[in-house]
Amino acid sequence: MTTRHSYAPAQGHRLRHDPLAAILGPRPIGWISTLSETGVANLAPYSFFNVFNYRPPIVAFSSVGHKDTVRHAQRSGQFVCNLATRALAEAVNHSSIDAPPGTSEFTLCGLTPRASTQVQAPAVAESPVNLECEVLQVQRLHDRQGRPLDTWMVLGEVVMVHIDPTLLSGPDGTYDTAAAPILRGGGPADYFEVTAAARFEMRRPG
Asked: Which of 46, 54, 155, 199 could join 136 in a cystine, given CB atoms 3.0 to 4.6 angstroms apart?
């Protein structure tokens, strides 16, 4: 039997890059827009992101560091998740910049803020899918010894969904996952596309 590369995370992985993010990936990107107290539109990507409930739909993103997105979501109780696509990949990446206070990443990235219908935070007009969310809770994470980490998880209930009709196909309007998203892999710069050629079907038993 081949000897495995085994390690305790607390003692280091002994590799060039931490493999865990690559093992648990690729992951959808939560491209989160919020509104500051002074009305400045903020936008940042989070690769620790996913959906965690059907009804009501609940999504969550996690931020390493108590950053502007978390602060704005806590204060306002709202955020918008915008679909990160291949066409917008450079803008998604650029929006991760550590911008000076009071600067909007929408402006830095040449993106258009579009008014939402149920929340105050704007959506990215260029993104084909926008999920308007109301914050349910903001939780600081802890390790197994109960020590607080500088990592914050924001859970939100999706209260409005906007989808570009080009992503809906067939007579029943099936959403085409392969038409749009990019995903975050591991390492310093790995991203992936979802393609129709990679799709396969496997139905649940019973």
From this structure: 155
